[in-house]
Specification:
Blueprint (H helix, E strand, L loop, with lengths): L26 E5 L6 E5 L12 E5 L2 E2 L3 E6 L5 E10 L9 E9 L11 E5 L5 E10 L8 E6 L5 H8 L26 E3 L11 H9 L3 E7 L22 E5 L1 H12 L4 E4 L1 H9 L1 E2 L8 E2 L2 E6 L14 E5 L6 H9 L2 H13 L10 E4 L1
Parallel strand pairs: 1-19, 3-12, 3-14, 4-11, 14-18
Antiparallel strand pairs: 1-2, 5-6, 5-8, 6-7, 7-10, 8-9, 9-10, 12-13, 13-17, 15-16, 18-19
Pathway: tRNA modification; tRNA-queuosine biosynthesis
Organism: Adlercreutzia caecimuris B7
Subcellular location: Cytoplasm
Length: 365
């Protein structure tokens, strides 16, 4: 197995630069995971493939307003700070002060120990948030820094929503539409730097229709990081060190999976992040060694799913089309076969599907 096995020609013009006009009117490529046979449908046709007793499990995380555009204090030069994750700092966290691991631009002018501070102003020109670059992040691989965030407003949350922007993937250029369209309709707690994009195609009405049809709905939470877009550089994918993310599988979802299994239904993951959450929560030592899904509360996972992986929880998968040579291509290939998945991608390209985060969807069953 080589990383090149998961490469494909991705025409730039097929990278969707904006969402579908209607969430559930995007295209849906349906693939039989056993035979590789494909059908071309519309996403709302998913109702034709789900049965009473099936269970959909979706990642309900919401994208943070993590992209901050401001000016370097003292020079006024343009600067960008991208929030990655909150971390411990040299002083206690308060409503107005917190420490975050961040990416910055321009990196050469925002070095720790140089007194670098970036100020962020609201629409009225008032500085409502500042970021002081105080240290290098531990185990950082992309020049991550630690920033001390401080605001004069009652809370950092208020400040972030006053000046922050929803970040978009690097391959989406100049999108100026509604940032809410990069959030799922069921999203809740802001904890991700990128959206679980397979869920973008669901509308509240479609979810209600599926529930009326007897399909269950449950949620997990996985805090999606920017490394989800990272391609694998190593020739041997097994030598790649996958990123770590935090996930939660509540007891209610564990119970819903058990109920679906008892009723003969399938567990259908909405997106690869839901797959990683459910499969990470499988405990092979539980249930007398027979294995069982167990609840998890913001635990770390570095689960790396490659072809040959045995799925313990997930029976079917709704997903978007992914970047070539990525760990997500490998995960999807593990859910069927590499040959079938690559053939499906060739079909999608030939049929001019819209690809990647704002693009069309696949259903592997």
């Amino acid at each position: 197995m080589r990383t090149d096995d998961f490469d494909y020609a991705l025409p730039d013009e097929l990278i969707a630069q904006e969402p579908a006009a209607e969430r559930d009117r995007c295209r849906l490529l349906v693939m039989d995971r056993a035979t590789g046979e494909v059908e071309d449908r519309i996403f709302r046709d998913i109702v034709d493939y789900l049965r009473p007793g099936d269970l959909l499990v979706a990642n309900e995380t919401r994208v943070m307003p993590a992209r901050l555009l401001g000016a370097k204090r003292g020079t006024g030069g343009a600067a960008e700070v991208f929030l990655l994750r909150e971390c411990a700092g040299p002083e206690p966290r308060t409503n107005r002060v917190a420490f975050w691991e961040v990416l910055v631009r321009p990196g050469k002018r925002l070095k720790p120990g140089a007194g670098a501070v970036v100020d962020f102003a609201d629409g009225a020109g008032n500085v409502v948030l500042s970021a002081e670059i105080i240290d290098w992040a531990r185990n950082g691989q992309r020049g991550e820094r630690v920033a001390r965030l401080i605001t004069p407003l009652p809370s950092l949350d208020e400040a972030l929503h006053a000046v922050g922007h929803t970040p978009l993937p690097p391959y989406i250029k100049d999108y100026a539409g509604d940032e809410e369209l990069y959030q799922t309709v069921y999203s809740r707690r802001e904890s991700s730097a990128a959206a679980p994009t397979a869920g973008l195609h669901f509308t509240s009405q479609l979810i209600e229709r599926l529930c009326d049809q007897g399909v269950g709905w449950a949620t997990v939470e996985l805090e999606v990081g920017l490394d989800t877009f990272r391609i694998v550089d190593e020739e041997d994918p097994e030598k790649h060190v996958i990123h770590t993310e935090f996930y939660t599988v509540p007891q209610a979802t564990v119970d819903a999976v058990a109920a679906a299994r008892a009723a003969g239904g399938r567990v259908i993951a909405v997106g690869t992040t839901s797959v990683r959450s459910l499969e990470s929560a499988w405990d092979s030592a539980a249930n007398g060694g027979a294995g069982a899904l167990v609840p998890r509360d913001r635990e770390a996972t570095s689960l790396y799913i490659l072809p040959g992986y045995r799925f313990h929880v997930v029976d079917a998968l709704i997903t978007n089309f992914h970047v070539p040579r990525s760990t997500l291509m490998m995960l999807v290939s593990a859910f069927s076969t590499r040959e079938s998945v690559m053939a499906a991608y060739e079909h999608a390209v030939a049929e001019r599907y819209r690809l990647l985060s704002f693009g069309d969807a696949m259903f592997l069953h």
